[in-house]
Every structure is written in C-alpha cells, then in structure tokens.
Amino acid sequence: MAQATVLIDGNNFYASCEQSxxxxxxxxxxxxxxxxxxxxxxxxxxxxxxxxxxxxxxxxARRELEQHNVVVRSSNYALYxxxxxxxxxxxxxxxxxxxxxxxxxxFAKLHRPTHESLRPWAMRLRARLKQDLxxxxxxxxxxxxxxxxxxxxxxxxxxxxxGIFDLGQCDQPERWLESIAIEDVWGIGRKLAHWCRLRGVxxxxxxxxxxxxxxxxxxxVVGLRLQRELRGEACLPLDxxxxxxxxxxxxRSFSRPITNIDDLRQAIANYVVRAAEKLRKQQQRAxxxxxxxxxxxxxxxxxxxxxxxxxxxxSNDTSVLLKAAIPLVEHIFRPNRDLAxxxxxxxxxxxxxxxxxxxxxxxxxxxxHKREGLMQTVDQLNRRYGxxxxxxxxxxxxxxxxxxxxRLSRAATTRLSDIPVVHxxxxxxxxxxxxxxxxxxPTEGSG
Length: 447
Hints:
Layout: E1 2-10, H1 13-21, E2 30-33, E3 40-43, H2 45-49, H3 58-67, E4 71-73, H4 77-92, E5 97-102, E6 105-112, H5 119-133, E7 137-142, H6 145-157, E8 164-166, H7 173-178, H8 190-198, H9 204-209, H10 212-219, H11 221-230, E9 248-258, H12 261-282, E10 284-295, E11 304-315, H13 318-325, H14 329-332, E12 339-347, E13 350-351, H15 365-385, H16 430-440
Parallel strand pairs: 2-4, 7-8
Antiparallel strand pairs: 1-6, 1-7, 2-3, 5-6, 9-12, 10-11, 10-12, 10-13
C-alpha cells in the first residue's frame, strides 16, 4: 500500500480557541491581538469576511471594529498552548506517525488502501476534533509534504470540499495546481516568487514543470527538493524527534517605557524565571546567558545594549540563573533612555543527562538532587494553580510595565480560578418542597 502525507491545520486557531471556551462567540466576528494589544494576528472566518487584514494596528482598526460589533481579545498564550497540546495528543491517537510542525499544524503519515478513499477517515477526525475540543480543522492529503500543504490550502478555499482535500485522489489535479499562485507555494518567499514571475512561472504547476537546471542554479538542492515534492516524491521525511534547541530566548515589549534601573531588574528577573522554566521543560541546562535591552527603533536616539556571562557550571536552577543575570543589568542600563524592550537569551545549551562537575563550584549529589526536587515542586505548583502561584521576590509583586492585555479571556483549561461556574436553578417542584418540609419539620419535644 502507498503512503499518504497528511497536513492537519487548525482553522483560525487563536480565534477558534476563544470561541471554543466561550460558545457565545460562535458565529460572531472575532479578532485576536498581538503583544501589548498592538495589531491583529488572528481572525475568525466572520471577521475575515468583513475585510479586516492580518497585521492591521489595533488603534487604526478600533473604530471600524466597534462599528461591526467585532469581539476583540488579547492574546491568551496559556490557553492556546494548552489547546494545542490537547489537539496534538488527539491527533497522535488517530495517525500512524505525527510531526508537530507548529502550534496549530501537524504532518502525519497514513497508509492509503488500494481503491479506497481516505476521506471517511478525515471526516471522522474532523468530527472528533470538533466534538472533543470545539476546534475546526482543515485536512490536506498528498504524496509528499509539499503536496499536503497545497491540498490543505485548497481544503480551506473550496467550501464544497468541507475542509478536506486529497490531491492524490481528485479530478484534474493539474487544474488545481494551476489555481495556486506561486507566492502561496510552501517554501517560496517574496524574492523567489518575484524571480519566478520574471520567468513566467506564476503557479504551482509551472514551478513543478519548469527546467530543473534553471531552478538548481537559483536555489540549489533545496529548490530541486521542492520541485520533486510537487511531483509527488516524498523527499522530506517526518521529523519525529526534533533536534535539541541551541538557544532559548524570552523577550517582551513593555506596556510603557522603562526609565529606571529597578524596573529593568524586575523585567530581566521575570524573563530569567520564564527561561529557566523552559529549560527544565526541555530537559536542558544553560552554559551561558545574555541579557539585552533597547529603545524603540523608530526614535532618533535609538539605544541598544547587551551583556553576557559564562556559567562555571551549566544550570537550569532559577536561583543560579538569577544570580548570574541580575548584575548584568547595570551594564546595559543607561539613564534618560526610554527602554521599550528587554530579553534574556540562554546559550550553550546541553542535556540534563550529563553534568560535568567544576572544581571551583563544589556541589554534592545530595545538594544537587535537593535543588532539582525544589525546582520540580515549584514548576508543579505553578502548573496546577497557575503561573505566579510561587514567585521569586526579584520579579516584583505587581509591575506596572508588564505586557498590556486589556481584553484577556480566561485561561479556563490551565487555571483553577478561571474555570466557569455553573449556577443551577434553586427552585424545586412543590411536591419536592413539601416532602423536604416534612422531613425537616421539628418533631414534638425536640429542642
């Protein structure tokens, strides 16, 4: 049996997550904003139909959004990450092999039975995702990753295909490839698309059929691999074991400019805490770290500065990383500068399976295991009861510079305090009330 490559993609994922947790939003136009409520980064199908474009600054679109009664939400990353994990877990149970490609996309492999269609399987999977998570998905099937990408795009564009398109079993595949512009082909950027159009290559079919030698001179083996993928040759295997990360970065823009060193220390401390959590989740330790800050790039007195330190003993212990990072703040801070952003970069990452001891940093096995147990306990409590349940004093209590999210929805899947409360009707039928009255009536002689 031949194998089919499948691309499963959550439709309007951020907006769909908001609608899933708040059924009152279903059928209404919804947009989700970026950090600090800056610009539109996700739109429901209803909002897209109204003509709101991706990347539109919120302050420019605000009045029009209000006129059309569009629901506006701040980015709720805790909710989206949890819904993504739930979606991927469900997909793993219904596919043979799964590669998580992004927060809302996954490639999979399936055996294609002879003379049988995979459409019934795809319909069952879409129904299961909608029933269990309330998330709509599009499913594209092809002989390769590139074909699955094109099929997924067609599944979203053609309503009568009900979110499913199989490029391996469709009528007139040439016509469908011609309907996809060269700019919409997976792996084709703006400059390469311009180069192709200068040579008359305007769609996916023409790219597939153009002379391979000419494409190789421009793009090398990467271009040839893409062309072969479009022809149905599976050149890109599923990445089932992603390579360990080389660096981990945590950075944010401030809701207001920072002008004093104490606020910058708190910001760097917050980002170090988050970076340490990421390292422990990735089962890695950092051998070096860098902190940086900058002003807005749109002002004439632009300022940017970084400072780095190498750790004697690689670590993912929050207290160790804070002790190394906080002194660096004095090297990057400058008075009378309106700092707009700061960040922390964890570098020289290595796995937690091996730790090379250091003569100048004595630590017994008992001490090491004690610190690891403490970090695990902190992470578990924060996961169970919400971020910040246990916090480090260096991060401050309620910083005024934190990211602006004025329209944030509840994180009902990850925070106990955000779980919706259902109030039942306290009124009971008269017969039940009378029986209860009989049972609760005081007997004669009772005190």
